[in-house]
């Protein structure tokens, strides 16, 4: 082949190759164009502008601290913490999450928030993307706790200025073979990218995004926007299980119509057809669960009966018996004649149950109901069919009782009392069962008070009273309460070791009964101000704040008010179990507010004793011999999970004394020194509280050698 022919052949192949490549590119482009709309159709963008009063079901919030305030999302938590966050449920598997800091916030607030991505509601795990001043870091969420201080997965230097009020914060989440990636943008500008190469979290099939706002910050957000996939709509199903075909049901007998269902929230309607499903008549409309309805078979004999059950609102879903069943007249008749309705019968007595029947010989089953015939209990499964049976009435109380007699063992014929009669328990003595002495109930807890006695037909209502002073005075817990033997009581804020409960007839307080012995009302946390003293015009007088706690305490805040206003709080110092806690003091001149929290997620462990001292200066105008009330108020205590705990509060007193004047006679002299020697050597009478307040010059809570030497120096 010549050179010209080879060149022509090469050009021809080259042209064919270019044509093949162009055709392949067009084909691939067409496939991509066809595929893209399908992918895009699965992604939706929702924006929550919070222009309402409540978050609603689109949000899962921890402990419900998150609330809408003035059209923005606010973390109203009273303890500074990352342990509370909000998860957005309206879209799953989000690829982007953004929000806007409100313009009325502050710089600290705009640097006290972060994104939550790839969050698994089941394992309570995921990622926390944190942008604070010069840091951009990635932390895990494990067991519902943001590991802000414990674990840092990734950290990069941000490129944008610090976040500020009004800024839009956006995170884009992607995942590939190289890991889970999170790219942060501030006002649309790239700030940095964080990666978990190990893909340690967020690997479930249904994941969510959210927001974490640090407590006690001006960091409210608006326009929370998520790009993701709407949750799938659950499929509703209904299936008739009985009667489902081939059954024979007798007129007047009772039959449980049953069905199965899933994801059905509306009521269901139950219908009967006697012509093989051509037409239906409504029997009843009931909730979808429990999936059973007790049906008295009507007098509509047919061999082509079917049951249809459907959503009562839109008929979807719907199911019909798989095959025809039969309704037929029973071969014999039965009629209960006594008790047949309206009677009053009492426990421990024997009454005759009577009936008439066309059934000759054989046996009958005798049953009683206490719920109007919905359910029955067997009295005798095979009694002789004599028309009468002697029944020992059991110890039950109900106004809706009935008797049913039916052929045994077939259940036909059958009849029950025409209407309800009443069973009474022969009235016993009224007796308090719980609390009956020795119980320890916590303030604010829900506790069930229990009693026995005459039933509601004999004594319809009771009054429930409680005493916190051993029966000296009584307070009403509930008046005209239904006499059903139990009452759920919210334990009041009355800490005592001498509590009693009293139950009495609401009509005339007779009969009555009360707890046999005292029970206690207590709290998990007790905060008290220890009595102290100081001399008018003195400085640095210490007052101890004591915490007795049966649980670990994460943080607390409280207000101490002195009345009259003769003290000035100078310093607050954490001590003992709270030594590592940070303390903030706010003094407005009439009271001091104190905040105590661990910045390292520490706790005040279970124990008892002082946790802080307040150093007070005493006004020179304070009257010697008098005292100032030191009262606690505005108290908030959080447990180890940052949940609020109701404390018991004990106020104290600050006595105005002449320091060193142990005898309290207005002068400090040798007589005081002589008494001081007795106290030091413990040779005289025991020290009185007044002597301790005057002699404890170093305010350490006792009288020792240092106090003695101080008195010596005052005299000599």
Can you give keywords for this protein?
single chain; 716 residues; mainly beta; eight-stranded antiparallel beta sheet; 5 helices; 47% strand; flat
Describe the protein's architecture and organization:
- This protein has 716 residues and is mainly β.
- The protein is 10% helix and 47% strand.
- It contains five helices and 55 strands.
- The strands form eleven sheets. Strands 2, 5, 7, 8, 9, 10, 11 and 15 form an eight-stranded antiparallel β-sheet that branches.
- A hairpin with a 2-residue loop joins strand 9 and strand 10.
- Helix 3 packs antiparallel against helix 5.
- The longest helix has 39 residues.
- It is flat, with a radius of gyration of 40 Å.
- The chain starts with a helix and ends with a helix.
